[in-house]
Design goal:
Rossmann fold; about 325 residues; 13 helices; alpha/beta
Length: about 325
């Protein structure tokens, strides 16, 4: 029928996060769908769907075969390492994400982890739970040094919060293969040398994308460059950290601690049974909640729907396109 709305399949966790936006979407019929790739691909085929909105889990094969050319995989979020852009482009499928909409949310969570580490919050909570009322001295953040590794939207938002809100001294670190900018607002200085950035840092925050060249970026050598009093904070992607090397550095006291919101395998599974972060007293763990706020979820839903709507209208050039090469092969 000519008045039928295009169906948009939204994987279950993402649908729940942005349900009000999906229900209210004008001109689109948004429906819950399974997140597992085989099941999602089956629904795509059964309903002849062109448009899907997905979360961060990996999609490696069947989904690309199921979607027709001109279809869209819209990522509900910014990180897109779970989407195979090369495979999508070969099939003529457009891939998008939602840049910028969660910068503040993730930066706030990173700052929360920094503050929790400085004030030894987990120790205080444990003492209250056990009834021991053990008071342990924490640290002020004013005047402390933070190295922000990755100076994109999230890194810049974090630098602003740390510098203006806490009076911290912030150093930025950009890609080693590109000249560092001469200045960025709220950063004392910016370098492309990791060792220089972290040398005097009390906190090292990872805010870099999970590109193939960043896999295992925080390895034994870079951990050895960090100050022994430093905490590593990761709200980026688990893949950028060698978890075995980090565990060993923490267990040996070569760095002060780690506050982690993301992991190589999620839900969290230790790299080895004998290297479980949960067994260490100098680790703070949260279950990948950096971008999971009511406000950020609403913005991600709206941006993902906007990308789908642009595809429906044929305005591909205005989409947050991740695989522009698809335009050359279509």
């Amino acid at each position: 029928m000519p008045d039928m709305k295009p169906i948009v399949l939204v994987t279950e966790p993402e649908y729940r996060k942005g349900e009000d936006r999906f229900i209210a979407a004008r001109g689109l019929d948004c429906r819950r769908a399974p997140g597992a790739e085989d099941d999602l691909a089956a629904v795509v085929r059964d309903l002849n769907v062109f448009y899907v909105i997905v979360g961060g889990r990996p999609y490696t094969g069947p989904l690309y075969e199921a979607l027709p050319a001109g279809g869209v995989i819209a990522r509900f979020g910014v990180g897109h390492d779970g989407i195979d852009k090369t495979r999508a482009s070969a099939r003529g499928v457009l891939c998008t994400n939602t840049p910028g909409v969660l910068d503040q949310s993730v930066a706030e969570h990173a700052m929360l982890l920094v503050a929790a580490a400085a004030r030894k919050l987990t120790t205080a909570l444990a003492s209250m739970t056990s009834g021991t009322w053990a008071s342990t001295a924490g640290q002020d953040l004013g005047g402390k040094r933070m190295a922000v590794i990755g100076c994109g939207g999230i890194g810049r938002a974090l630098a602003r919060i740390a510098a203006l809100g806490y009076g911290m001294r912030v150093v930025g670190c950009t890609r080693p293969d590109a000249p560092a900018p001469s200045a960025i607002e709220h950063f004392e200085r910016v370098t492309n040398d990791f060792g220089e950035a972290v040398r005097d840092a009390d906190f090292v925050s990872l805010n870099m994308p999970a590109k193939p060249e960043n896999a295992g970026f925080i390895n034994r050598e870079r951990l050895a460059q960090m100050n022994p009093r430093a905490w590593l904070v990761n709200t980026a992607r688990g893949a950028v950290v060698d978890e075995r090397a980090l565990f060993d550095a923490l267990a040996a006291g070569r760095i002060a601690g780690a506050a982690l919101d993301v992991f190589a395998r999620e839900p969290y599974v230790p790299s080895e049974d004998t290297r479980d972060f949960r067994a260490l007293p100098n680790v703070i763990l949260t279950p990948h909640v950096g971008s999971n706020t009511v406000e950020a979820n609403g913005r991600m839903a709206e941006r993902a729907l906007h990308n789908v709507q642009l595809a429906v209208e044929g305005a591909v050039e205005r989409m947050d396109l991740l695989n522009s090469e698809v335009l050359r092969t279509s």
